[in-house]
Amino acid sequence: MPKNKILKSYVNGKFIDSRHYFNNINPVNGEVISKIAEADKDIIDAAVASAKHAQENAWGQMPVNDRCALLHKVADRMAEREQEFIDAEIADTGKSLFQVQTIDIPRGTANFRTFADMVKFDSGETFITELANGEKAINYSVNKPLGVVAVISPWNLPLLLATWKIAPAMACGNSVILKPSEETSSTAFLLAEVMDEVGIPNGAFNLILGRGSNVGDHLTSHSGINAITFTGASSTGKQIMKSASDTVKPVSFELGGKNSAIVFEDADLDKAIAGVARSSFTNCGQVCLCTEKVYVHRSIFVEFVEGLKAQAENIKIGYPLEEDVFMGPLVSKAHQQKVLSYYELAREEGANFVTGGGTPKFSDQRQHGYFIEPTVITGLDDHARTNQEEIFGPICHISAFDDENEVIKRANDTEYGLAASVWTENISRAHRVSAKIDVGLVWVNTWFLRDLRTPFGGVKLSGVGREGGKHSLGFYSEPTNICIKIDEH
Ligand code: 6OD
Q: Any idea which fold 259-451 has?
């Protein structure tokens, strides 16, 4: 993306400028990548009005096959412009080419294709009703779109998480207003161009750019928004829930996590060490599913800690396009400061730093970037703040456990409940333990292996509702039950 490029909101089929701009920063070196034209209330109002109009007309009335064919075209055009999406995601986030190529961008197209296919085979429920007094009826349900859905997406997996919500929402016949994180607007802007190019009717997809503090509340409290879907911090989820409450909007939230990995004495140790390194340090720990607490059976504790230390020290940190780089910078200076403040807190709480704990030193432009070391710590109590609060950085704490019931209790001793991973070669133990962990997702001998048809979401502070497969179709539509009496004569 050229440095002087201005990213604009997209409303009713047009890109809209504004009087206020803010800088989009490259986290690798702190330089300005582009400028973002910040939307204001009038632009949001126009987006809501156009989304409603499209939903009631061209988009909402379109036969489902045509709608899905258009969403496939979106995926096809994204694939044609893949390199631009890759470049844009890397520029905004600094994440490695390997990750963007294997996770972020392929999921963008897969999200559209999956939900465009699924919705065609979605059907309502039917019941033949026979009452005790002999009356009969047939009940069936018709799934209708909710109307206008606000999609509020985060900076950690920008395209992946925006499309994870846009695709099913649009497949179900809703219009969408996307508000991406102000840190990562570039792939959202490209997506708006793609929607425009393939002929999505004006208003069916709108993009609002701006800082959450300026535009968020007006959008989430807007009486014309019929539902809100959000992935991000639990604290923001609480705010959105409050602002949505006046008009009792349905919400679907995927929020923070404080995820455990549990490594049993019967695990394949090499696989477990490599797996926990991946679950702790992928995307610099900036995935809500990342592991921050590791429980290892006492009999293999020392060996495990040594192994994870070696893995962490082997991670190459650097430029996203450099060969073998696994970790780029954190997304922003503010986030780097936050994660470093947790490294400091861990020190104050008495942690032993097995490795890491600071920032890598560079003698080129990267010294102005937001890099951080992968960090492994031990020695803290389960109730230390470091072990209770979501850090969202490349750090994990390892502690030893002695038996199964103890570790389940300790893993559940958190306000969060998103994901866990269990490492064991004992199949019964895998089933037994997984079912007892209070989270929405458990991975056994793997991590972040995704099937888009499965329920995805968290419990407790980690979220409200589930998306994925029929759960997404369920959230983005409203069933109307129709009851028809059948007369005997
Ligand atoms: O893979 C997904 O569908 C998903 N919702 C991932 C969420 C990651 C959160 O950081």
A: Aldehyde Dehydrogenase; Chain A, domain 2 (3.40.309)
